[in-house]
Amino acid sequence: LAQNVDHIEIWSGDHAFTDIVRQFTRNGIPVTVHAPPHGIARSLEHAATRVHRLAELSFMHTTPILDGAA
């Protein structure tokens, strides 16, 4: 795998990825982890080459339109 990959991206902050991230970085493959601001394991954060903290999702409150009437 290392011969065919030049970068890994993981979209999770779960500690379960820490060991594989360490293996990749030891083999010279940079790893970017994308995770919520407070949703990344400390071990994963330290193992990754780069951490991208995702913005919290916010939803605009809207009033639904029923029966086509505004």
List its traits.
elongated, alpha/beta, three-stranded parallel sheet
SSE diagram, text form:
Layout: E1 8-10, H1 18-26, E2 31-35, H2 42-47, E3 50-53
Parallel strand pairs: 1-2, 2-3
Brief description of this entry?
With about 70 residues, this protein is of the alpha/beta class.
Description:
The chain has 70 residues and is of the alpha/beta class. Strands 1-2-3 form a 3-stranded parallel beta sheet, covered by helices on one side. The longest helix has 9 residues. The radius of gyration is 18 Å and the shape is elongated. The mean pLDDT is 85.
User: What does the overall shape look like?
Assistant: elongated
Number of helices: 2
What is the residue-mean pLDDT, rounded to a whole number?
A: 85
Q: Secondary-structure element sequence? A: EHEHE
Number of strands: 3
- Runs in which pLDDT lies below 50 for 5 or more consecutive residues are none
In percent, how much strand structure appears in the residues? 15-25%
Main sheet record: 3 strands, parallel
Measured as a percent range, the helix fraction is: 10-25%
Strand order of the largest sheet: 1-2-3
Structural class: alpha/beta
Q: What's the gyration radius in Å?
A: 18 Å
Give the N-to-C terminal Cα separation: 56 Å
